[in-house]
Amino acid sequence: MIEETHTKSLFTGIVEEMGTIKQLGFDQDNSFTMKIGAKIMLEDIHLGDSISVNGTCLTVTEYDTVLTEFSVGLAPETLRKTSLSELEIGSLVNLERALSPSTRMGGHFVQGHVDGTGEIVEMAPEGDSLWVKVKVGRDLLKYIVPKGFIAIDGTSLTVVDVFDEEVCFNFMMVAYTQQNVVIPLKKVGQKVNLEVDILGKYVERLLSSGFVESIKSS
Q1: For residue range 78-121, what is the model confidence (pLDDT) as tens digits?
Q2: Residue 169: which of 178, 155, 157 has the closest Cα?
């Protein structure tokens, strides 16, 4: 879990808009702050709101509805465990506000807790769709299954195939998705933030704790 203060925030993995990094770096209090230009995010924004930035749940610390921008703070652990440290002024980022009771559930439950990063190793078009292959560590690959959900830079996507020997998985994006998220703008060799489906981790925990065996024997 990257941001321990966001245990109650959930997202769908359906990107609402792409924002633009306007400023980033350490401020006078030695806190790493990121200022992002956006429009939809500012429609009902409040201090303390949770917003997913490339799949990382971050807290709004300032906002300006006239300049249409908001700021978020990043903890050192967040910078170490995500690809956000690679962003530059002018970079585009995927943005999504936390779920509200009236939100339509269009993707899957995403916590905004980045499990790790993967490296894009291949991007290949097929018609107007795009195949993307990502290399990950084996500690994450065990949670990734064909036809399963995964959040990549905060985008809810479906895994197509898993390649155990290559320690990779791939997915395909249709034209509409390509036009509305940042992944197609990245290049081979760049990192993406990954959040695996939480159900896989729950199952592993139950099996390792012996809970299932205790039920069978009871």
Answers
A1: 888 999 989 999 999 999 998 865 555 555 667 788 999 999 99
A2: 157
Residue pair 193/153 in contact (Cβ under 8 Å)? The answer is yes
Per-residue confidence band for 203, with pLDDT thresholds at 50, 70 and 90: confident
At 187, the amino acid letter reads: K
Which amino acid would we find at residue 158? Answer: T
Class of the CATH-defined domain 9-97:
mainly beta
Active-site positions?
11, 50, 57, 59, 75, 113, 158
Q: Which CATH code of 1.10.3720.10, 2.30.30.100, 3.60.15.10, 2.40.30.20 fits the domain covering 116-199?
A: 2.40.30.20
The segment(s) of the chain belonging to CATH 2.40.30.20 are 9-97, 116-199
Q: In percent, how much of the chain has pLDDT > 90?
A: 68
Cα(43)–Cα(66) distance, rounded to whole angstroms?
A: 11
| C-alpha–C-alpha distance, residues 14 and 83, integer Å | 19
Write down the mean pLDDT value for the chain: 87
